[in-house]
Amino acid sequence: MAMRFKPLLSVSAPLHHFNYYCPQPISYFSKESQFRISAAKMATTSEPQTKTPPSQTKIIDSHLHVWASPQEAADKYPYFPGQETTLPGNVDFLLECMAEAGVDGALIVQPINHKFDHSLVTSVLNKYPTKFVGCCLANPAEDGSGVKQLEHLILKDGYRAVRFNPYLWPSGQQMTNEVGKAMFSKAGELGVPVGFMCMKGLRLHLSEIEKLCTEFPSTVVLLDHLAFCKPPTNDDESLAFSELLNLSRFPQVYVKFSALFRVSRMPFPYQDLSNIFSQIISSFGANRVMWGSDFPFVVPECGYKGAKEAVSLIANQVPLSSSELEWIMGKTITQLFQGQWIQS
């Protein structure tokens, strides 16, 4: 089934000086330019109806986490109090899983285990600069310090995306408060996508997302894990999914087809997702959809390799063209993060 791709938003942001974090303007401008998203037109071509991406296409995981091993946590990278874990999530284990599954690169999302201490993830990004891109965690502190922290993480530490977790906002406040708007706007200026984690349901946060997208159209948005919309079984769930599809009217909104075990009502290979997957592709276009595993949480569910294989199995049910599957498995996110995971 061939589908028409919708054009990507053309994001063009003015350059600004941040001398506190970048004392050398020449190197600063060079660095900032790599964060700005080039939204080149994506043209479709007629291709054979194969069900796996061509071998030359890099497979990129749009959503996973790493955290310290127990020894690393004891020695250098402590867990945030109350967020300790026994689930293995160290980078060596991740690299083994990626090698086995044939995954070439990934976007690492700062885990709650370390909360606003990004030192562990930063060390991984520094060690493997061509394999990983970092997504930092927005700090919505009421004093507004999170804006400077965001600038620091992007301009100094090289993060290229930021996650908004609405459940970290002060009680009674929303992501559209003064601090939230300042961080969302700054992300747009720097060409940094904002990911939303709507774990308790899209409808709780829909008005905030719509307001931010309307007010700041230059900020690219990533909806984690299908915005936690499961295959609808009642009117409320049907409405939530319709509202997710309706967000496609904002050209800057992308959807992560990720953490399938969280949104499916069935065991691997999560075949009940085929219908909503098809509708997501129809509404957004494959060039605004990207696969993600949610490592390491996915490992005890279906294994890391299974997380990748599930997408092809679901795609067989839709079905998708090889071109569409190529976008979803790596081309979309590679296009977003220009200069990373260069195709060979």
Automatic annotation (TrEMBL):
Molecular function GO labels: carboxy-lyase activity; hydrolase activity
Gene3D superfamilies: Metal-dependent hydrolases (3.20.20.140)
UniProt KW Membrane keyword: no
Pfam families membership: Amidohydro_2
InterPro entries per record: ACMSD, Amidohydro-rel, Metal_Hydrolase
Domain Amidohydrolase-related positions: 60-337
Keywords of the record: Decarboxylase, Lyase
Signal sequence region: none
Annotated family: Belongs to the metallo-dependent hydrolases superfamily.
Name of the molecule in the record: Amidohydrolase-related domain-containing protein
Organism: Quercus lobata (Valley oak)
Gene this chain is encoded by: LOC115978894
